[in-house]
Design brief:
Length: 246
């Protein structure tokens, strides 16, 4: 086997590896975004709801009913909203690709110059930009224009169904923790137990989300905890005011 053949095999293996990693990361981030958002919303929303009811009444049955209703409604709403949002994004990407495909067929010379111009704006010389544009167009013109001009991957689209399922499960799972904490047998300490449980769980989701996404965990944890404390404090105070007035 010649040196050139070895290099070609190595290049092919490298490209395949990078392509796999890119698609794997895109899929993982799609699940992460929907999952972490759903879990956080489930924890904070349900905690705020049950704390508000707990501030107005000590009736465990009423608190449980309110929490379950919030869990079911929130999970369905979260999944539906995520499905609609991702579907709209996917439809927009497909429409943009269809338009680009028509433009490539109608005026390939102009599109080639346009592609070269994009690479010129990134700092390449005119000669190098034209060479890059020609070579990329020879391989896959639609993919080249989609990445340079539209900033999207012509072969990879977010899945609305995947995002919806992830959001539903994550919201429901997140909602269970404050619901269990506030309706447990520790009636005299339900508020304290709920606050501790919510803070701990949001610290975990913030840490995990930041680590998987490659970001710093400190800010994510602090943001989650502060928002949850504000939510629970405000709704509990409102619940007490309403309960007292009624």
């Amino acid at each position: 086997m010649t040196k050139d053949q070895d290099l070609n095999k190595l290049d092919e293996a490298l490209l395949n590896s990078q392509e796999f990693q890119r698609k794997s990361m895109a899929s993982r981030l799609n699940w992460l975004r929907a999952g972490v958002l759903g879990a956080n919303d489930g924890i904070v929303s349900t905690a705020g709801l049950v704390m508000g009811v707990a501030g107005a009444t000590t009736d465990s049955a009423a608190i449980l009913i309110a929490g379950v209703a919030g869990l079911v409604a929130g999970s369905i709403s979260m999944a539906g909203g995520e499905y609609t949002s991702v579907s709209a994004q996917k439809d927009s990407e497909k429409a943009a690709l269809a338009k680009e495909r028509i433009e490539l067929a109608a005026n390939p010379e102009l599109e080639l110059r346009e592609l070269a111009w994009f690479y010129e704006q990134k700092g390449l010389s005119l000669e190098t930009a034209q060479k890059v544009a020609i070579e990329l167009t020879a391989i896959d013109p639609l993919k080249a224009h989609a990445e340079a001009e539209l900033g999207i991957d012509s072969e990879q689209h977010a899945s609305p169904g995947q995002a919806a399922i992830s959001s539903f499960v994550a919201f429901a799972g997140g909602s269970l923790l404050p619901l269990i904490a506030v309706t447990g047998p520790w009636v005299n300490y339900r508020i304290q137990v709920t606050v501790v449980a919510v803070i701990a769980s949001l610290a975990v989701t913030g840490f995990v989300g930041a680590k998987i996404g490659g970001a710093k965990s400190g800010k994510a944890i602090l943001r989650n905890v502060v928002v949850s404390l504000l939510t629970m404090g405000i709704t509990y105070g409102i619940g007490q005011l309403v309960g007292t007035s009624i």
